[in-house]
Specification:
CATH topology of the largest domain: Kinesin
Structural class: alpha+beta
Largest sheet: 10 strands, mixed
CATH architecture of the largest domain: 3-Layer(aba) Sandwich
Number of helices: 12
Number of domains: 2
Shape: rod-shaped
Helix content: 25-40%
Number of strands: 21
Length: 480
């Protein structure tokens, strides 16, 4: 881990290795299969799989203003992509070196950023884990470009949000699975629904037993295709609060939070070992329906800013204060988690309450910190880098949550019951038909016997009459 090679954020001499983003979050096959075979309805009690927060750095190229203003100055950062290191210059002869999980130059493509940073998290979500991808950095350093770019004019510029949904829809089966989306903004410590602007004060609900956070008042839209998702993003982005500052002409004044809920049907098999006298038998129960509910959270944080540089005043000043306070609360939580503190101040901000599963929780988390090259903003760049360094020390415990799918079982039992009813009716009709056939056959036989008996009786009667007549005739002849 980078934390073993760094002290106070500075790389020490000697060899050090950084963990790769590309490792899949789920455990080894043997452990994974054991998890899938578990008969418990929920995996909340499972020990989980360790997963450190992965952190990447992305350098923004100089903009037009910096090209002119900083023409006589070198960039304040130097990237060593092969070593996954970044040098932050103090002056012309001294610099601090930091190591991250990945370092992206200003020429890095959106596709590469997605595949390295976000795709492993998306794969985790499809496997049943919760996942978080978050962008942090000074205002104007490319957070929204990295995460929320729609790519209407240039598909290669598509951001992490769009690419994530493409991979999710390509992997799920919409016949048995479901994908739904909420899109929110945290503005001035108020959670607002970007898909329903009238819904501007959503409450956070925490499960007292598990601590899980939910937003039952948020709009939840089921996604069937990529186009409808893109339209939702466009609609939500149009309602996000933004303003023109000295540092950024379209400065986001709120934290945007996209939540993608994935529900997948899986089939588990419950195994039971039972022993009899002098004999052990392995009994395998029929497969049972399970459902995996996972969530991908993509967080586009509003940029930190220094008031004397951004020129914010009036209401914009209050917005900037709120942004900085929430980012400060997040930083305090990261520090507490990195230092294994007994108390983590999660309740100091709604942002930290929403992200409690992302840092120190059960989610697979990737953080991308965005920085600019300008030496005039070296202080903000240093603060961003140190935030990323501390985040790398946070360890999560990834857990799959599988629940018994009662609805699926109920539907299956209803189908089986309908089949049994139809089969029972068929057998009953066959039985009734057989009884009727036997009854008719018996009646026919009885009628035939009665006819035969009547015929025999009539014959016997005629025979007796004939014999009687002959006897009378003989007696008359004797008398004469």
């Amino acid at each position: 881990m980078a934390s073993t090679a760094c002290r106070n954020g500075i790389v020490q001499k000697g060899n050090s290795k950084s963990s790769s983003f590309k490792s899949r979050p789920h455990p080894s096959p043997s452990l994974g299969s054991a998890i899938r075979r578990s008969s418990s309805a929920s995996y909340a009690g499972n020990d989980g799989v360790p997963g450190r927060v992965r952190v990447a750095v992305r350098l923004r190229p100089r903009n037009a203003e910096e090209t002119v203003a900083d023409a006589d100055f070198a960039d304040c950062v130097e990237l060593q992509t092969e070593l996954k290191r970044l040098k932050l210059r103090k002056n012309n002869w001294d610099s601090d070196t930091y190591e991250f999980d990945e370092v992206f130059t200003e020429s890095a493509s959106q596709k590469r950023v997605y595949e390295v940073v976000a795709k492993p998290v998306v794969e985790s979500v499809l496997d049943g884990y919760n996942g978080t991808v978050m962008a942090y950095g000074q205002t104007g350093t490319g957070k929204t470009f990295t995460l929320g770019r729609l790519g209407d004019e240039d598909t290669s510029s598509r951001g992490i949000m769009v690419r994530s949904m493409e991979d999710i829809l390509a992997d799920v089966s919409l016949e048995s699975d479901s994908v739904s989306v909420s899109y929110l903004q945290l503005y001035m410590e108020t959670i607002q629904d970007l898909l329903d602007p009238a819904n501007d004060n959503i409450s956070i609900v925490e499960d007292p037993k598990t601590g899980d956070v939910s937003l039952p008042g948020a709009t939840l839209v089921q996604i069937r295709d990529q186009q409808s998702f893109t339209e939702l993003l466009r609609w939500g982005e149009a309602h996000r609060v933004a303003a023109n500052t000295k540092l950024n002409t379209e400065s986001s004044r709120s934290h945007a939070i996209l939540m993608i809920h994935v529900k997948r049907s899986v089939v588990g098999r419950e195994e039971d070992l039972s022993s009899e006298i002098n004999h052990a038998s392995h009994l395998i129960k029929p497969s049972k329906p399970l459902v995996r509910k996972s969530k991908l959270v993509v967080v586009d944080l509003a940029g930190s800013e220094r008031i004397h540089k951004s020129g914010s005043e009036g209401h914009m000043l209050e917005e900037a204060k709120s942004i900085n306070l929430s980012l400060s609360a997040l930083g305090k939580c990261i520090n507490a988690l990195a230092e294994n503190s007994a108390h983590v101040p999660l309740r100091d901000s709604k942002l930290t309450r929403l992200l409690r599963d992302s840092f120190g929780g059960t989610a697979r988390t990737s953080l991308i910190v965005t920085i600019g090259p300008s030496p005039r903003h070296r202080g903000e760049t240093a603060s961003t880098i140190l935030f990323g360094q501390r985040a790398m020390k946070v360890e999560n415990m990834l857990k799959i949550k599988e629940e018994f799918d009662y609805k699926s079982l109920s539907r299956r039992l209803e189908i089986q019951l309908d089949k049994l009813i139809v089969e029972n009716e068929r057998q009953q009709k066959a039985f009734d038909d057989e009884v009727e056939r036997i009854h008719l056959e018996a009646q026919n036989r009885i009628s035939e016997v009665e006819r035969n008996f009547a015929d025999a009786l009539e014959k016997e009667k005629l025979k007796c009459q004939m014999e009687y007549m002959e006897s009378v005739k003989k007696l008359e002849e004797r008398c004469c």
